[in-house]
Amino acid sequence: MYPFDFQHRPAGFEPLENEPIFDPARHLQLERPQTVYGLDELGYSEDVLRDAPASFAATSVFRILSDEGAALLYDTVKRLEDFCTSNPRIARNVRGGVYRSKFLRDLCLSQEVTKFLSDIVGLQLMPHTIPHQLGHLNYNPKTLGENVDKWHVDTLRFDYVMFVTDPKRNQGGQFQYFKGTKEEMAALKAEGQAVPPERIISPDMPGPGYAILQQGNLVVHQAKGLTAPGERITMVNGYIPFDPDYPDYARYDQLCHADPAHVVTTEYSRHAAVQTKRFLEKHLIDQPFSDAQSQSAEHLEHAAEILRVAAEQIRAGKGQMEHFGD
Questions:
Q1: How far, in whole angstroms, is CA 194 from its chain's centroid?
Q2: How far apart are CA 149 and CA 224, in angstroms?
Q3: Which pLDDT does position 289 carry in this prediction?
Q4: For the purposes of burial, counting CB atoms within 10 Å of the CB of 314, is it exposed (0-12), middle (13-18) or buried (19 or more)?
Q5: Which terminus of the chain is less hemmed in, N or C, by CB atoms within 10 Å?
Q6: Mean per-residue pLDDT for 25-37?
Q7: Nearest residue to 3 via CA among 134, 197, 194, 160
Q8: At residue 286, does pLDDT exceed 90?
């Protein structure tokens, strides 16, 4: 069960009226991807593979929504377009749509989708406990040719990128990822070199409701701009490992660029609190009686460290937005 009650919304996030009801039986059409790529295929070292929660890197294209589900999602995100904001990386995006739209929220929190994605990754996942990391929407910039998003890695572990509009109707607008590590991308950009075309993968999206899944903090990706007038909308939904032993990857200093000041600190603080609570429940609260003094002390220290790091990030505030450019 998701830990937060969406009936309590931040100021300014009024709910949409007269929404359709999300029905997994009618609106989902889950079809497994043909190919699953590993982090080793991108060139990551054994050290990275050992520390990552899964060896999974990304998938080929797969289907999430039925035709009806895709049509209803499109109608919903068009209603949300009035709430577009921008940040140094993305010209037009909507975050926090799950506070406004129950249809979007129920899709993002769908147990059927979460289990389906968990099976692909080989790791039990749960929807991200920062609500602004759910149902992030990207809309094409007003300026023709401007990239939707720059080369970057995500500030979350796992996410899918799903086309809401039909990419076959557009020229340009491809979602792309880099066949390499984020360190290799940083080196290319530092040397002023263009990304070699043979190292850019552009999955062929058949239509709306299709997606790719990735370990977002390790897969470098971008969204190209349209080269002719059209409409390009994608949705990104974030997940974290269900097991609270895996280190958190949320970045308060980066979220400050994208999310409202009256929301970001509360969401991030609650997220850290939930991670700590889940860790304590696993290792201390739900455990039988024992005299494991050293182990109990270590678990308490680890829980305290989660909160200490979160407090340190909040005090440090907004940092420089990190990306690799176009």
A1: 26
A2: 7
A3: 86
A4: middle
A5: N
A6: 97
A7: 134
A8: no
The set of residues, in sequence order, having a beta carbon less than 8 Å from that of 13 and lying 6+ positions away, is 96, 99, 100
In a domain, 323, yes or no: no
Please return the burial class of 190, using the count of CB atoms within 10 Å of its CB with bins 0-12, 13-18 and 19+: exposed
Domain annotation covers residue 216: yes
The number of residues in the chain equals: 326
Residue whose entry in the numeric block shows the structure tokens 């996030």: 13
Q: Establish if 286 belongs to a structural domain.
A: no
Beta-strand relationship, 200-201 and 175-178? antiparallel
User: Residues 222, 316, 318, 269: is their CA dihedral positive or negative?
Assistant: positive
| Amino acid (one-letter) located at 139 | Y
Which CATH number do you get for residue 157? 2.60.120.620
Expressed as residue numbers, the domain containing 168 is 24-248
Interaxial angle between packed helices 261-280 and 293-316, expressed in degrees from 0 to 180 and rounded to the nearest 10 = 170
Q: Are 268 and 187 in contact (CB under 8 A)?
A: no
CB 52 within 8 A of CB 11: no
Q: Is the pLDDT of residue 287 over 90?
A: no
Look at residue 290 and tell me whether its pLDDT is greater than 90.
no
Q: Tell me whether residue 270 is in a domain.
A: no
